[in-house]
Structures are given as structure tokens and as C-alpha cells.
Design goal:
The complex is a heterodimer.
Chain A: E1 4-7, E2 10-13, E3 19-25, E4 31-38, E5 42-51, E6 54-57, E7 64-66, E8 76-78, E9 87-94, E10 105-106, E11 110-114
Parallel strand pairs in A: 2-11
Antiparallel strand pairs in A: 1-3, 3-8, 4-5, 4-9, 5-6, 7-8, 9-10, 9-11
Chain B: E1 4-5, E2 10-14, E3 19-25, E4 30-38, E5 45-51, E6 56-59, E7 62-67, E8 72-77, E9 86-94, E10 100-102, E11 106-111
Parallel strand pairs in B: 2-11
Antiparallel strand pairs in B: 1-3, 3-8, 4-5, 4-9, 6-7, 7-8, 9-10, 9-11
């Protein structure tokens, strides 16, 4: 099992550009989510999905779009990048509701810089 | 509004001693609490968790304590080892929801 994979590892964008951060998992997990990590802020939930075709907003969804056409993939789209979106982005997956036995597995992260 | 707070950005502990990381929360609807550990350039990994109906959970060197009346959570690591040097995040789940709320993290450094 590769677990949760994210591509690219690093990305530099100019303001106004769009891009898609890729996330894939091979554990057949229903629940996937995207977080951003900023200094002093911890991890904040952007969007999440409880299964293929179902997505919902987290704490900080503005400026981001998601879709979930398959169980394995959960891409995050930046529509028009802004410097405030400079961050480290983590994708995570779990079988279901986070509990003692259904913990979230995180990918290695994508470090995004918007100039 | 930070619902989960880790007020110590960093903590330095001597190898072999006890490390205590603290976390406070404000939302009474949290029903599950977790600790994650994060090394540089890696994603967070699950460490230990506790249900809101318990006040203690132990797993090897790691023990999590929950004080519901004080809305306070702590992680004890005994004895501390150099490999424990990492950033530790506490997180809480809103009852019945698919969302986790994370604290800001505490960087733990274990000195030889």
C-alpha cells in the first residue's frame, strides 16, 4: 500500500494562476479531506468528502474547489491563486468517522508558494 | 475563534524525563480527542486518542489525560526519547461530525 500520496511536493504560482493539487489513496477509504497548515494556526480543514460524489466545506473553503468522482482521488483546485494561499497542504483519508480505530492517514504534503 | 488551543509553541525536555504537552478546548460538543505527531517534511501521524467518556488512555510510553470540567487535555511521554522530537498537534472531533479541529501545535525538543 502506498497510503496517501500527494503531487506535486512543491509548487510556485503567480497571483491569479490556477492549479490542481492531486491526492490519491489506495486504502479504499470513504472519507477524504484537505487541510492547510500555516505557522501559528495548526491545521485547518478546507473541504472534505464522505464518499464518491459527496463533498462539503470545512473551516476555510473560500478560493478552493473539490470534486470526488472516484473513491481513490480527491483533487483540490485553486481557482485564482492569491498570496494568502501560500501554505502547506495536507490530504488525509480514513475509513469513516474518526475514532480510535478509524484514524486519519495523512499524505506528505504539498508546499505551495504564491508570488 | 480558536476552539482548540495549544498555548505553548515549544517545549524542551531532557532525555529520560517526562514530557507534558497541554491542550485546552472551548467546545463542549467535542466527543473525541486525538494527538498527532509530525516530523519535518512529513504528514502528521496518529499517536493516541481518548473518548470524552474516559479520563485517561495509555499506550506504552504515551498517556493522554482528559479533564472535562476544565476542558483540558494533556499528553504525557515517559520516558522521553530523542525520536520524540517533533511537532505535536491535539485535535478534537465535533460529536457526530466528520470534522477535526486542530490546535496550533507544540514543538517538542528532547535534549540528550
Amino acid at each position: 500500500n502506498a497510503g496517501v500520496t500527494q503531487t506535486p511536493k512543491f509548487q510556485v504560482l503567480k497571483t491569479g494562476q490556477s492549479m490542481t493539487l492531486q491526492c490519491a489513496q489506495d486504502m479504499n477509504h470513504e472519507y477524504m479531506s484537505w487541510y492547510r497548515q500555516d505557522p501559528g494556526m495548526g491545521l485547518r480543514l478546507i473541504h472534505y468528502s464522505v464518499g464518491a460524489g459527496i463533498t462539503d466545506q470545512g473551516e476555510v473553503p473560500n478560493g478552493y474547489n473539490v470534486s470526488r468522482s472516484t473513491t481513490e482521488d480527491f483533487p483540490l483546485r485553486l481557482l485564482s491563486a492569491a498570496p494568502s494561499q501560500t501554505s502547506v497542504y495536507f490530504c488525509a483519508s480514513s475509513r469513516g468517522l474518526v475514532t480510535r480505530t478509524d484514524t486519519q492517514y495523512f499524505g506528505p504534503g504539498t508546499r505551495l508558494t504564491v508570488l | 475563534d480558536q476552539q482548540v488551543k495549544q498555548n505553548s509553541p515549544s517545549l524542551s525536555v531532557q532525555e529520560g524525563r517526562i514530557s507534558i504537552l497541554n491542550c485546552d478546548y472551548t467546545n463542549s460538543m467535542f466527543d473525541y480527542f486525538l494527538w498527532y505527531k509530525k516530523y519535518p517534511a512529513e504528514g502528521p501521524t496518529f499517536l493516541i486518542s481518548i473518548s470524552s467518556i474516559k479520563d485517561k488512555n495509555e499506550d506504552g510510553r504515551f498517556t493522554v489525560f482528559l479533564n472535562k470540567s476544565a476542558k483540558h487535555l494533556s499528553l504525557h511521554i515517559v520516558p522521553s526519547q530523542p525520536g520524540d522530537s517533533a511537532v505535536y498537534f491535539c485535535a478534537a472531533r465535533v460529536q457526530g461530525a466528520q470534522k477535526l479541529v486542530f490546535g496550533q501545535g507544540t514543538r517538542l525538543t528532547i535534549n540528550p
